[in-house]
Amino acid sequence: MDNIRNFCIIAHIDHGKSTLADRLLMKTGTLDERDFQNQVLDDMDLERERGITIKSHAIQMEHEHEGKKYLLNLIDTPGHVDFSYEVSRSIAACEGALLIVDATQGIQAQTISVLYQAIDNDLEIIPVLNKMDMESAMPDEVTDQIVDLIGCDPEEIIGASGKTGMGVEEILEAIINRISAPQGDPEAPLQALIFDSVYNSFRGIFAYFRVMNGTIHKGDLVKFLATEKEYGADEVGVLKLKPEARDSLSAGDVGYIISGIKTSKEVKVGDTITHVARPCEDNVEGFEDVKPMVFAGVYPVDADDYEDLRASIEKLQLNDASLTFIPESSAALGFGFRCGFLGLLHMEIIQERLDREFNMDVITTVPNVSFNVISTKGELVEVHNPSGLPVSTAIDHIEEPYIIAQVISQADYVGSIMKLCLDKRGILKNQVYLTSNRVEITFEMPLAEIVFDFYDKLKSISKGYASFDYHPLDYKKADLVKLDILLNGEMVDALSTLIHRDNAYDFGKRICVKLKELIPRQQYEVAIQAAIGAKVISRETVKAVRKDVTAKCYGGDITRKRKLLEKQKKGKKRMRQVGNIEVPQSAFMAVLKLD
Q1: What is the CA radius of gyration of the chain?
Q2: Could you report the per-residue pLDDT of 537-550, keeping only the tens digit for each?
Q3: CATH code at position 267
Q4: What 3 state SS string does 113-166 have?
Q5: CB-hemisphere CA count at 13 Å for 34?
Q6: Cα(first)–Cα(last) distance of the chain, in Å?
Q7: Residue 505 and residue 547 in one domain
Q8: Range of 470's domain?
Q9: Which residue(s) pair with 407 in the sheet?
Q10: CB-CB contact of 232 with 216 (8 Å)
Q11: Dihedral angle of Cα 518, 458, 89, 36, to the nearest 10 degrees
Q12: What's the whole-model pTM score?
């Protein structure tokens, strides 16, 4: 066990974690030139295309140092705020962390929040300054920021470059010398923490785990504590570039187990594996259940695909434990699921993965957050969906979730960032200058205001420099109204939103104008209305496509033309009574991008 080191790589998005991980794999000979490709651990097409890490990836490296062989278990983690749950799980399975900071950008909001998580878990932090080969690097300035943040000596910070491979040797040395070997007793009853799982259509579910105490052998009868199910360990092994089978894994090791599990509900991330014959006393303290921030309905385009969609979401949930879902139905869209996501990027990625990995065509409704409704009887009802709102006469008041938002930016953009946050009903709490040119602004704001396009706007007004991180605060009373969208007097429940009264009129007007562009013209007039309760606050009309029935009347009496037009009008009216309007998927998506 003295020769094992478990560590993860943490950083803000786009600070070069995956590239540096490539260098470590090359240096330790885990990856040869022939198999090399950039960001080798990012194995999803989506990750490659967007240049972001979505999943944390575990891999084992072997490295010789001063004549001794060491086993290094590396977990590369995502950097975007929407995937912070992946990071919390990786941290739980490690003893140390490489904190990577981009020398050209300095410390960002996500870096700070992830760092606090690592410190809470007593991880040894090794600070690394990446991208030192770039002309715009500011090593001295960023070194000062890191020293201020973690209170280390400037000598402890390793300068490196993922592109050129500079500093990789020093990083490996620091991992071996500074990070402690895992603690645990190989002779004790088995106790292993599941930190991830993937679905394989041939072999069932691979559960990735970290052994805290004890030893697991191939063929052992094991039990999962949370579900209390028992299985035979058909195969155990370690995670190299491809999974490699081993006869046994003992305390401190990170590996995988295949036990022929086919149903995804039976594997819970954060669960503990133990032996049936000699069980451990208690669960491993891992990480708490994730709390989704954003809710949206996901519906199959074709109603017959409902069961396939359920199976797809369950398999996806294995790979992404922060996704939650419950069945729901909608008058406009039929049967589907109300899914909980950690943010808008998370929602977009899930939608994209359903399409690519499972070939599912889905419609996603307007995202919203969960509200607490206090009824006139004093009962509390949790509402995830505007259509689940009780009648207005039964509501005493509604409470909405608030968050603490931290924005770190260059001082030049403070004015425009403050205006953005105040427009979103934010309350300024604090403003701290980290250096002469970097400022951290703390706001208290409603989560509902961030759900739409806050992140995109923040990036554009700060020219990409501002970074943003948030954590939940609590629920506060708010003046919210339900805004309904009506097409020809029929309510489209999938477009309903709960919105602050002050913003409702403006938002209703913009939705109507947008829908007018997107709804195709019919043979009859289509009225698009936005209403609060029975009061219509905005209306647009999609004009009918009509044939010129008076073309054959040239000259003659006006009554001849009038008779033909009246006849046409009657036909249109009859058509309108039986016609129903298909709302295109682009309409649901456009509501997200309203500006």
Answers
A1: 28
A2: 889 888 888 888 88
A3: 2.40.30.10
A4: HHHHHHHHCCCEEEEEEECCCCCCCCHHHHHHHHHHHHCCCHHHCEECCCCCCC
A5: 0
A6: 57
A7: yes
A8: 372-478
A9: 441, 468
A10: no
A11: 80
A12: 0.72
